[in-house]
Amino acid sequence: MMEPLFLHPVMQEKIWGGTRLREEFDYVIPSETTGECWAISAHPNGVSTVVNGAFAGWGLDQLYAQHRELFGNSESPVFPLLTKILDANDWLSVQVHPDDTYGLAHEGELGKTECWYVIAADEGAEIIYGHQAQSKEDLAAQIQAGNWEDLLTRVPVKAGDFFFVPSGTMHAIGKRILILETQQSSDTTYRVYDFDRRDDQGNLRELHIQQSIDVTTIGQPANSHPDKQIIGNLATTTFVSNPFFTVYQWEVTGPVEMKKVADYYLVSVLDGQGQVTVGEQTYPLQKGQHFILPSTVTSWKFDGQLHLIASHP
């Protein structure tokens, strides 16, 4: 099977969501508080569906289970990555994710190391990225005291910024930010602070204070250092490469021929339009599409004006 796998995403409503997924990407959204587009996902809480070719109608989870040869015969029991686009119309909760050891022991699923590419951000937008506590005891005391202003590290953000968010990093995406997130396939989140918000039933959302203290690392997170290379019509920025994933930005400005250096790729079209040719077949590409280049695809050609984010395990 020599073809890319185009995917239909799953939309998730969130208390902090908005309408930018519709405005920016023309997605059909379920409500005016749609927070997440699970674009490439085999996670049981939101499975993407193949829309083209021999496997049209298959869930990505089913495809991964039954046709591992499309994914380099990966030994991971679950599809390892999840690509999302997040519309933070308001602040997300201040949260932290466990590592694999803690996640598997306490939640029965992988931990979550993730990273963010900022697609758009309003003037003055900021995130929380790390904390100022000097020890676990200090962390617990400041959380107990509700000393959020001194504890949390705020960082201004703009379109084009990239942040690596390893498990154990205390973090929050701020309001009016649109982000592409590449993460381990996990839905485990420990909320440490939620700005005392209430849900539509008037209840405070659940917090996970002890788990948060358990898994939060001490010391400021170290962001990655992007590396950019330009060859012909392709500018490749390698944002991060670690044991969980490698994430690239591909900026295409004309015909480009590429050969695979990984088992398979997850690709999202963030802007522009063009095409990808695999073998004899050409597929049109436009903003908001997401696809996988499986192991059976060893080379391909892009053409057009395209802004792509790609990743692989």
UniProtKB/TrEMBL annotation:
Record-listed E.C. numbers: 5.3.1.8
Positions bound to Zn(2+): H97, E114, H171
Pfam family, one: PMI_typeI_cat
Lineage: Bacteria, Bacillati, Bacillota, Bacilli, Lactobacillales
Sequence ranges assigned to domain Phosphomannose isomerase type I catalytic in this UniProt record: 6-103
Reaction equation(s) it catalyzes: D-mannose 6-phosphate = D-fructose 6-phosphate
Record-annotated active site: R191
UniProt KW Metal-binding keyword: yes
Family annotation (InterPro entries): Carb_Metab_Reg_Kinase/Isom, Man6P_Isoase-1, Man6P_isomerase_Firm_short, MPI_cupin_dom, PMI_typeI_cat, RmlC-like_jellyroll, RmlC_Cupin_sf
A biological process from GO: carbohydrate metabolic process
Any GO molecular function: zinc ion binding
Gene that encodes it: manA
Keyword Ubl conjugation included in the entry's annotation: no
Gene3D superfamilies with a match to the protein in the record: Jelly Rolls
Domain Mannose-6-phosphate isomerase cupin: 236-313
Keywords: Isomerase, Metal-binding, Zinc
Cofactor requirement: Zn(2+)
Annotated family: Belongs to the mannose-6-phosphate isomerase type 1 family.
Cofactor annotation comment: Binds 1 zinc ion per subunit.
Protein name: Mannose-6-phosphate isomerase
